[in-house]
Amino acid sequence: MDNKEKYSELIKSKALAFGFQSCGISKADFLEEEAPRLEKWLKNNFHGEMRYMENHFDKRLDPRLLVEGSKSVISLSYNYFPEELQNNPDFKLAKYAYGEDYHDVIKDKLRTLVAELQDEIGEFAFRVFVDSAPVLEKAWAKKSGIGWVGKNSNLITKKNGSFYFLAEIICDLELIQDFEVTDHCGSCTKCIDACPTKAIVSDKIIDGSKCISYATIELKDHIPDFFKDKMEDWMFGCDICQDVCPWNRFSAPTLEEKFRPNSEIKNFTKQEWKDITQEIFSSVFKKSAVKRTKFSGLKRNLDFLSE
Questions:
Q1: Alpha carbon of 68 to those of 28, 88, 125, 128, 280: distances in Å?
Q2: 12, 134, 236, 269: which could form a disulfide with 60 (CB 3.0–4.6 Å)?
């Protein structure tokens, strides 16, 4: 067994030991197929006010511009599907936001994982990414064989559905590449049919400016009237297109304690959400990804839903 094979096997076994669901490897190269798609998506203004998507166009398509000398992109997935849902879903949170902020939890795991790898392999150049840099995560996960991109543009696997976070280690190790898997959406259009704002404009293409997650998280100004009576009580994010996906019948509860909801998130009544204060917000969402929308943003969302 040469080093490429040995290191690839070691990385995958370590990833599983750290609780990652899947781990796949692809060559760090220019994403030729994605370039025209990203350009067209931006030209159609499907990113709405997410102007940061216009930045670092080249870096989004070529990981070698993010990590000098990089040769491999290691893609990983981590399950966040909750064992328990909100008991009073009058105002709903996306399931990924039930627990602690995934950016911090998963990045800590990745750094420890890499430290252990370097103890065995020796020093190598790397950077870890968890949804916080110009990395086209789904494209790399697809190339590495973790899953396929569904019609709702989420990465889907036959074994686990789509309720998981994606992360990457971009490094200068020469590794064995994995192969893409086939698409298993078939003629199903459940996600397209279920979206109340018709944000899924065609197979795998999302008009982000019509997405409920965009309106409740990314949008910093007032919520447009377009969303009136279409939000289906989502106050932060949205899971509709995942909830209806047949592959998510295979989703199993996460084993990660930090992704489990606290009692307030599980049990808050409609009135308690309406009456939330800055103090309560800071306490309930102390380590949560919901901090991104700030108290003012969550209050705006709640007020919009209550009008």
A1: 11, 49, 8, 14, 44
A2: 134
Q: Which residue has the tokens 């350009």?
A: 39
User: Any idea what the Cα angle at residue 299 is, between residues 293 and 304, rounded to 5°?
Assistant: 110
What's the pLDDT score for residue 209?
Answer: 96
Tokens of 265: 């998130």
15 pLDDT more than 80: yes
The C-alpha R_g of the chain, in whole angstroms, comes to 20
135: phi then psi, degrees, rounded to nearest 5: -125, 125
Tokens coding 54:
């216009």
Give per-residue pLDDT as tens, 32-72: 999 999 999 999 999 988 988 989 899 999 999 999 999 99
Q: Which residues does the annotation place in the binding site for [4Fe-4S] cluster?
A: 185, 188, 191, 195, 211, 238, 241, 245
82, 95 in Cβ contact below 8 A? Answer: yes
Binding residues for cob(II)alamin: 60, 131, 152, 155, 166, 213, 238-239
Residue 153: its H or E element: none
Residue 229 catalytic?
A: no
Residue numbers in the known binding site are 60, 131, 152, 155, 166, 185, 188, 191, 195, 211, 213, 220, 238-239, 241, 245
Q: Look-up: residue for tokens 């295979």?
A: 250
pLDDT average, residue stretch 247-271: 95
pLDDT band at 133 (very low <50, low <70, confident <90, very high): confident
DSSP state of 157: B
Considering the candidates 62, 90, 131, 203, report the single residue annotated as catalytic.
131
For residue 225, CA distances in Å to 44, 91, 138, 209, 304 come to 21, 19, 31, 13, 10
Element (H, E) at 4: helix 3-17
Domain ranges of the chain: 3-84+95-171, 190-244+262-302
